[in-house]
Amino acid sequence: MGILNWPLNSSDEKYVATENSLPLRDASRQGRQTWIGNWATELLELASCAIMRRSRNDANLLVHRMVALGLDPCELRLLDPALAHHMQSQCSRCGSREQCLQDLASGSSGSASRNCEDWRNYCPNALALEMLSALQSRSR
Question: N or C: which end of the chain has fewer CB within 10 A?
């Protein structure tokens, strides 16, 4: 039984806190808990981005393609998780993974992947990647 529900004698009323008179420390504790919860959520998102970068699966191809185009995959994941998830699923279902891997490997020595437009012919995320690149260049 909480203190707000405690049976009162008329002489005990002055010692019981009401809902409207919660101590300031309880309000600041709630604020800290909210802040810590938000902070923990952001840390988990960043950790998942780091894991995604280190993974050796098909989603890694999307990360490499984004990095080759000067895009930040973690920023996309934080700002638009639905788009990031959609692009990852598109990449994992793509039938041109080997070609993508070869193109990325050949372009790793410089900016050849920016100039090479072959990937746009087979990549299911080509339009989304071009849109993100255009948005990024406009914001500069």
Answer: C
Give 38's Cβ-side CA count (13 Å radius): 6
User: Can you read off the two tokens belonging to residue 48?
Assistant: 């998942």
Looking up tokens 């405690």, which residue turns up? 6
Rounded average pLDDT over 6-20 = 51
Tally of residues, the chain: 140
What gap in Å lies between CA 52 and CA 73, rounded to an integer? 9
Burial string for 42-74 (b: 16+ CB within 10 Å, else e) reads eeeeeeebeebeeeeebbbbbbbbbebbebebb
* pLDDT greater than 60 at residue 21: no
Which residue in 76, 68, 79 sits closest to 52, CA to CA?
76
Separation between Cα atoms, residue 103 and residue 100, nearest integer Å: 5
Output the six-digit token pair for 26.
Answer: 């309880």
Question: Which of 78, 76, 47, 73 is CA-nearest to residue 61?
Answer: 73
Decide: pTM greater than 0.70.
Answer: no
Can you state the angle between helices 126-139 and 59-68, rounded to 10 degrees?
40
Summarised one tens digit per residue, pLDDT across range 68-117 is 999 999 999 999 999 999 999 999 899 998 899 888 887 754 444 444 66
